[in-house]
Amino acid sequence: MVAIQPDTGTIAVTRTFDGIEAAAHRVIEQVGGMESVMRGAKMAILKPNLVAGRNAASGSTTSFALMKAVAEEVRACGAEPVLCETPGTEFDRDATYTILGIDTFCEENGIRIIRVDPEGGEQDWVELQPEGARRLRRFRVPRILEEARLINLPVLKTHVVSTMTLGMKNPMGILPRPDRRSMHTFGIDQCIVDMNRGIRPDLTIVDGSIGQDGEGPVYGDKADLEVLVAGRDSLAVDLVCCAVVGVRPRDIPHLKLALEQMGKPTWTLAGEDTGVIKKFRLPQQKTLYRFIFWLMFPLDYPYTWIAKRGKHFSTMLYGTGLVGTRPQIQEDKCTRCGVCVETCPLPNVIDLKTLKVNYNTCQRCLLCYEACPEKAISVKGYSGARQ
Ligand code: SF4
Ligand code: SF4
């Protein structure tokens, strides 16, 4: 995983018209086959994007069909597929997995889940100090990566903080929370470049089967791109993704920095020359929103000194119900039919007596909002979610 010169070779693009699984097998073949990725290793870490409890149909998270196909390919090489991923800091990993059905999916498809200590407990992590890093001079990755290949499975979508989230940003989800906090505090764009000096995925397949534009990465607009983009060099893969959605790489701050500091990679395109499938609308990054979001991270340092281990400033703020995208029941429209309670994948989040949502446990998946037959649930907070 670490410190090998990536073979920039081929970047493959394929449409998913015949199904995501078929397209995934095809795109892997187009970049040289899984044997050339595994090179005899006995384990592959699958790193999807499970940023929040919003399923792949929303374009927020990696599709199960892609993970299933990749796991099959890994197993066909005599190796074990292992999933490792932690959602955004404001969300709970087990609750997010429950909403998405990750445990059941992995069990049915022979994928082992590794739950590394998100707080960076020494036993699970190994420190990297990548040469040439400017701000993120040291960070930790799961120790298990020392003996495994890393298969990076991001989603092709926009991001209200980093403008786009593609191959280069996705590995952030395997860093412990304190290191992710450092990345936000020190400047996310430079830190993404620095992180990629230490983490070089053995294969990246960007899931554009749906994707999102606008106010991604959780509540943006579904993009319905029907495409997968794969390759060994994350920057090259991201540049091709930008071309597919009509975005100039220089408008994405971390890609601009990567091009300036790492140089433009070269590659040969395989598969389909799709042109621009959909011109993406980039998020409107309001300065105040960006500042408030950023502020959560430096404030987290003193907060974690006094709070219980595992508690963070962002989760505390979300728990107040005053910030973030959140469902709210309107008493005057609610008939107390109970559909929202039945729909919510988590226990005891909605109280039908008081019509209150417990924001300490609510993971903001908005399934209740989508299910309410009376349209009695509104969505509060800054997002692209429909009101
Ligand atoms: S689904 Fe809608 S109408 Fe029914 S109890 Fe929930 S909020 Fe009220
Ligand atoms: S209350 Fe609604 S948004 Fe919150 S976890 Fe339950 S279904 Fe998801």
Q: Could you describe the 3D structure shown?
A:
The protein is built from 13 helices and 17 strands. The chain has helices spanning 20-30, 34-38, 64-76, 93-100, 102-108, 177-186, 188-198, 234-244, 253-262, 287-306, 313-319, 339-343, 367-371; strands spanning 10-15, 43-48, 80-83, 112-113, 125-128, 139-142, 149-153, 155-159, 163-165, 203-213, 221-222, 227-231, 268-271, 326-329, 350-351, 356-357, 377-380. Strands 1, 2, 3, 4, 7, 8, 9, 10, 11, 12 and 13 form an 11-stranded mixed β-sheet that branches. The longest helix is centred in the last third of the chain and has 20 residues, at 287-306. Residues 327, 343-344, 346, 349-350, 357, 362-368 line the site of one iron/sulfur cluster (SF4). One iron/sulfur cluster binds next to helix 12.
Descriptive labels:
387 residues, Alpha-Beta Plaits, 2 domains, 11-stranded mixed β-sheet, two-stranded antiparallel ribbon, globular, disordered N terminus, binds iron/sulfur cluster
CATH class of the largest domain, named Alpha Beta
Characterize the main sheet: 11 strands, mixed
Q: List the domain count as a whole number.
A: 2
User: What hetero molecules are bound to the protein chains?
Assistant: iron/sulfur cluster
What coarse outline follows from CA principal-axis ratios? Answer: globular
Task: Please mark out the parts with pLDDT under 50 across 5 or more consecutive residues, or reply none.
Answer: 1-6
> Helix and strand string, N-terminal first?
EHHEHEHHEEEEEEHHEEEHHEHHEHEEHE
Task: Report the count of strand segments.
Answer: 17
Question: What is the CA-atom radius of gyration, in angstroms?
Answer: 20 Å
Into which percent range does the helicity of residues fall?
25-40%
